[in-house]
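Q: I'm writing up a methods section and want to include an example of the input and output format. Could you take the sequence below and give the corresponding predicted structure tokens, formatted cleanly so I can copy it straight into the document?
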Amino acid sequence: MSIVETERQDGVMVIRLNRPERMNSLGQEMRQLMADAWCEFRDSSDLEVAIFTGTGRAFCAGEDMKESVERGAAGSASAPVKRENPYDQQTLEKPVIVAVNGFAMGGGFMLVERADLRVAVRGAVFESSEAKRWLLGGYDHGLKGGLGHAVATELAFAYRFTAERLYELGFINRLVEPENLMPAAREMAAHLMTLPPAARVNTTVMMRAMRGKANAEQEHLASRLKEHGAKEDLMESRRAFAEKRPPKFKGWNSPEDRLRTPKLGEK
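A: Here is the clean output for your methods example:
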């Protein structure tokens, strides 16, 4: 049994993360198999809509922290896969429906965020986890999701959100009982399949083009802030998670660094 399962029927491809014992965390093997599945979806002339879901109590818990600790390096960039994932690269021209069956944390939240339409079970939990693992919180998720600034700030600081709250905020399209998750997603997919092919493709591309994003000046500030602080805290956060203990963060390499925070407009 594969840790990434696929199904194909009536123009719809189901991509299912199947590593429930690790909450579908994103290890290198899973990321490679995901890339293979998304490339098949992109390249197929028979598949027009994707449903993305998981098994067990989590949709995806994000980065595989234990694997990162074993590797001694943080993040997926330290363990590249053989082919790029068009879903991660956001280069697909076909609509994707995410069916969230449980926890969607960190990288798992980002997988939800990239989808065009979102269905979630009641009680599912979401978290943008960058503030816990890196030197900068998830500053752009609220912007991409069209959320108000106060809510976007809460998201950036890694507070957890329930599916019910995100539904009220307009981030989730359908909120359902667990037994209705896949039926609801398939119903949405069936509707998309009734549309003229050009309308389905062109509307997908247009709606994605209208998503909010940080401007060049803000991205420049973000790149500088990602370097501001003790880099050893990145691995400490992951070791503490893997060892189930509170982290012991250093914060700054020297006390003076705390007073040198980059600001918007500085070069």
